[in-house]
Write a structure and sequence with these properties.
Layout: E1 5-8, E2 23-26, H1 33-45, E3 90-93, E4 98-105, E5 124-132, E6 138-146, E7 151-155, E8 161-165, E9 169-172, E10 178-183, E11 188-190, E12 196-204, E13 207-214, E14 220-227, E15 249-250, E16 253-258, E17 262-267, E18 273-276
Antiparallel strand pairs: 1-2, 3-4, 4-5, 5-6, 7-8, 8-9, 9-10, 11-12, 12-13, 13-14, 15-16, 16-17, 17-18
Length: 279
C-alpha cells in the first residue's frame, strides 16, 4: 500500500470531557497496514486519555478513613489491668473547635486496693486533653483531683465547661479560669444546650434547696426548697414522687421516667404532670 492515506478517529469514553479526538495518519512508504495498526494501538494505550477519564483523576478517600488519630498513652492513659478498675473515659465537645477526651487515673494502677476501702473510695485524678477538633493537635492538658471514681467534664455555653467531681463542681471559662462553684458533683443537671443548670443543695432535716442558674449570665433564675419525705404527686394515680428528686432538664422543665405508664414532667418549681404512653 505504497502512498496510501487513511484517517482514524478513535472515540473517547463517554466519561471524558473531550468530545472527539480526530487524527490523520499517513502511512510511511513501505510500511504495512498491520504494522501501522499495531503502532497506533500501542500509542493509544499509552495515551493519558486511555479511553477512561482524565489522567489526573484522584481516587476518593475511603469513607471509614479517620481525619486524624490521637494516641493517649503518651499523655498518661493506661488500660485497666483488673475487672474492678475503670478509667471512666469519655469524650465531649465543649465547642465546635475543641474536643476533650477525659479519663480517671491513680498514681499506681498496679497496686492493690488498700484494706478497708473499695475502688470507688480511692483518690484519683481527672485528666483531660483539650484538642483542636480540626487538626487533632493537643492545645493543653489539665488535671483535677477527685476523691473517688466520680469525675467528668460537662459542656456549658460559649466554650465554658463544668468540671464535676465527687467533692465539688466548678464552672470554668474557655481560658480555664474558675467562674463559679456549683456544689457537690452528682447533684446537678445541665440542659442539653449547656445554658442552664439545676443544682440541689442539702439543708438537713430532709430539706433541700434547688437553684436554677443561667450559665451565661450566672443569674439565679429561681430557687426553692422541697421536703424529701413529701410526696409531690397530687393526682389520683398511685404514684410516688418524693421531693428533692431530680431528672433531666430542658429550658425550664424537668422530666422523670415511669417505665410502667409513661413519665412525669414539671416546670422546675411547679407540680408534676403525668404524660401517658399509649401501648
Amino acid at each position: 500500500m505504497t502512498g496510501a492515506k487513511m484517517e482514524l478517529i478513535p472515540t473517547m469514553s463517554a466519561r471524558t470531557d473531550a468530545a472527539l479526538l480526530q487524527q490523520t495518519v499517513t502511512t510511511a512508504c513501505g510500511m504495512g497496514l498491520s504494522t501501522f495498526l499495531w503502532m497506533f494501538l500501542i500509542g493509544v494505550l499509552c495515551s493519558p486519555f486511555c479511553f477512561a477519564g482524565t489522567a489526573k483523576r484522584h481516587a476518593p478517600r475511603a469513607k471509614d478513613q479517620p481525619v486524624w488519630q490521637l494516641d493517649l498513652k503518651p499523655f498518661g492513659f493506661v488500660r485497666p489491668k483488673s475487672d474492678w478498675e475503670t478509667t471512666n473515659s469519655r469524650i465531649v465537645f465543649i465547642s465546635g473547635e475543641t474536643v476533650v477526651p477525659t479519663w480517671l487515673s491513680r498514681q499506681d494502677l498496679t497496686s492493690a486496693v488498700p484494706a478497708g476501702e473499695t475502688p470507688t473510695q480511692i483518690p484519683q485524678r481527672l485528666q483531660a486533653l483539650f484538642v483542636d477538633a480540626a487538626t487533632g493537635k493537643v492545645r493543653t492538658t489539665k488535671e483535677w483531683p477527685t476523691a473517688s471514681e466520680v469525675g467528668r467534664i460537662i459542656p456549658a455555653v460559649n466554650g465554658k465547661f463544668i468540671v464535676l467531681t465527687v467533692d465539688k463542681s466548678t464552672l470554668y471559662s474557655p481560658s480555664f479560669h474558675p467562674v463559679l462553684e456549683l456544689g457537690s458533683g452528682h447533684k446537678l443537671e445541665v440542659s442539653p444546650d449547656g445554658r442552664t443548670i439545676l443544682i440541689k443543695d442539702e439543708m438537713g432535716s430532709s430539706q433541700c434547696k434547688f437553684r436554677w442558674i443561667d450559665l451565661d449570665s450566672l443569674e439565679v433564675f429561681r430557687s426553692w426548697t422541697e421536703n424529701e419525705q413529701e410526696n409531690m404527686w397530687r393526682g389520683p394515680e398511685d404514684i410516688v414522687a418524693r421531693g428533692g428528686n431530680m431528672g433531666p432538664i430542658c429550658d425550664d422543665q424537668m422530666v422523670r421516667s415511669l417505665s410502667s405508664i409513661g413519665f412525669l414532667i414539671r416546670s422546675l418549681d411547679g407540680p408534676w404532670r403525668l404524660v401517658r404512653i399509649q401501648r
